[in-house]
Amino acid sequence: MGHEAAIVHVAEWLYASNVVVFTGRTLNANKLAKPMQIFERCLQHDFDFWRLTYGYSNKLGKGQKGGLYRLFRDTILLPALFRCRSKQLNIEPPIQRFSYKSARLRSADLAPRAIIGWEMAVEDDPLGGVEREYRDCE
């Protein structure tokens, strides 16, 4: 089953909602956007889409232990961010990628920590976080 509909759905939501802001930050993973934060907001925004498309239910396993989160993080999120960024720039941006923890998961896979270049938007920031300055950006 292809996940194109979910990628397009998430990309349109990211573009319209300004939940995350591209800042170009590469250092300090604590300030970068976390996949789990985006997943939770995405579920809050349109729970019915995930329920109808993927059969998601809160009872199936919430958060990082749920199968939908892994699918969202590994298959849907980065292509959706890529589409969102290309729509913002009207050109093809660089590939979006994760910052990984040094510790590994039980399956011996690397554990994604954050999304390089993206931060969660500040809720009360009228500029959507775009005009913020950072000392540690490359």
Q: Any overview of this molecule?
A:
The model is unreliable at 124-138 (pLDDT under 50). The protein has four helices and four strands; from the N terminus they run αβαααβββ. Helices cover 41% and strands 14% of the residues. The chain has a two-stranded antiparallel sheet with strand order 1-4. The chain has a two-stranded antiparallel ribbon with strand order 2-3. The chain has helices at residues 4-17, 35-45, 47-54, 67-89; strands spanning 20-22, 98-104, 110-115, 118-120. The N and C termini lie far apart (39 Å). The relative contact order is 0.24. The protein has one domain (4-120). It has 138 residues and is α+β, with helices and mostly antiparallel strands. A hairpin with a 5-residue loop joins β2 (98-104) and β3 (110-115).
In short:
The chain is of the alpha+beta class.
Count of individual domains = 1
* Major beta-sheet overview: 2 strands, antiparallel
Radius of gyration: 15 Å
Provide the low-confidence segments as ranges.
Answer: 124-138
Q: How much of the polypeptide forms β-strand, as a percent range?
A: 5-15%
User: Globular, elongated, flat, extended or rod-shaped: what is the shape?
Assistant: globular
- The percentage helix is 40-55%
Count every beta strand, where a strand is a DSSP E run of 2 or more residues: 4
Q: Strand-and-helix sequence, N→C?
A: HEHHHEEE
How far apart the termini lie comes to: 39 Å
> Widest sheet: strand order?
1-4
Number of continuous helical runs? 4
Main structural class = alpha+beta
Overall pLDDT confidence: 75
